[in-house]
Specification:
There is one protein chain. The chain has about 140 residues and is of the alpha+beta class. It has one domain: Electron Transport, Fmn-binding Protein, Chain A (Pnp Oxidase, Chain A). It contains 4 helices and 8 strands. The chain has a 6-stranded antiparallel sheet. The longest helix is centred in the first third of the chain and has 9 residues. The relative contact order is 0.28.
């Protein structure tokens, strides 16, 4: 994934952009399933996040290679990566190709967090730094 942003509060929607000029397994799958999960890792997961964004799912079992596990999302047909700190389950509501990228807008149907009470307590004391990385789609688990 190249880009991400919140574009609506009511209903809650996010837009992602994926390079359509390269072979992207997640793009193909999320367009077919009309669903995706946007995952937010912790700062300590930068190396894994970079690997997930650079390596092609056609060439490697990326999640297995970094020791991440998944299960089916609760509200959409896509997997959730357990190790990521925040997951937004999204139904695709709009797509458009802009130059080299396909922009996909998803309505957030459910969000889950695995952040600890200590994290929330400390949030007011230090800036929040979260890197967005993982778009998971159903073919990763359910071909």
């Amino acid at each position: 994934m190249a880009f991400y942003m919140v574009i609506s509060h009511k209903p809650p929607c996010v837009t992602i952009a994926i390079n359509a000029t390269q072979r992207r397994k997640n793009l193909k799958s999320l367009l077919a399933q009309k669903a995706f999960v946007l995952g937010f890792p912790s700062i300590s997961q930068v190396k894994e996040a970079d690997y997930l964004g650079v390596e092609s799912g056609y060439d490697a079992d990326k999640l297995k290679n970094i020791g991440f596990s998944t299960s089916r999302a609760k509200s959409v047909n896509a997997p959730v990566i357990h190790e990521l700190r925040l997951s937004l389950e999204c139904e695709v509501v709009h797509t458009v190709t802009v130059g080299s990228h396909t922009q996909v807008t998803g309505e957030v149907t459910l969000w889950e967090t695995w952040l600890t009470r200590e994290f929330w307590r400390n949030l007011s004391r230090k800036p929040l730094r979260i890197m967005v990385i993982s778009i998971t789609s159903s073919t990763m688990l359910y071909p």
